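Predict the 3D structure for this chain.
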Amino acid sequence: MRLLERMRKEWFMVGIVLAIAGAKLKPSVGVHGGPLKPEITVSYIAVATIFFNSGLSLKTEELTSALVHIKLHLFIQIFTLVFFPAAIWLFLQLLSITSINEWLLKGLQTVGCMPPPVSSAVILTKAVGGNEAAAIFNSAFGSFLGIVITPLLLLLFLGSSSTVPFTSIFSQLFMTVVVPLIIGQIVRRYIKDWLERKKPPFGAISSSVLLMIIYTTFCDTFSNPHIDLDKFSLVLILFIIVSIQLSFMLLTFIFSTRNNSGFTPADTVAIIFCSTHKSLTLGSEVDEATSVTEDAPSCSGVNMYRIVHTDNSENLYL
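Done. Predicted structure below.
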């Protein structure tokens, strides 16, 4: 009984394991172009659902208050788009002298250049009682910044030439993030009393949507027929990624909880998730237009990056 209660309490973690296992067993179901059509259901419907859900659950004054929290926004954006990729680059200079597959290292640098996540940071911040409004603003704002900054970072650190479809990415972000959030706020005004009485499980709904995103992402990863990596490199890079993630989360926690930081505990939660996590659903849109003119084996790893061979060039996908 205790095990069942524990599993019920930690259903999201159990769901992640099941989602990955399901993707491994039958990747064709959730692969790009497969029956679930993740290019539509995930890229548009799932993300829009998360932000509509947030618009319904958040009070307008909370969003307004988060909008003017400039210090918090600067901390998150500078950490994730300046400190994070620079620190990864310095670390990879040391790893480059090892026998780790160089394309795994390039993939790690690519992930480091990504903007904050659009959906997961918001969901995780909400799940543990953090500043959800701040997470929403920084996820959206960081994604818009990433349209311009991420290709520049890839050019700087990887020497890759890039042409990004600014209009299409901007439109997708606007339609899947901003519009659903505004609609959610409008709808909330008319059903506010009902929402306060019934208290719908907004967190569970968003977490379920995130499980779908995780499932389809791993379906794409496991369906790649060209994975050709030595186990040593793969295991080592997985260990490195987990170590980097934990180290950066600890670092943001230390900086944001200092006596003179000016951040509340709720702000700290938003900072930890927004500053150290990288875009899962929009990174591919930016990287899809970034080319690296070298031959390399296709590979995959943690944080869902992979290098896919197309004709005479390589496209890096998150």
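The longest strand covers residues 306-310.
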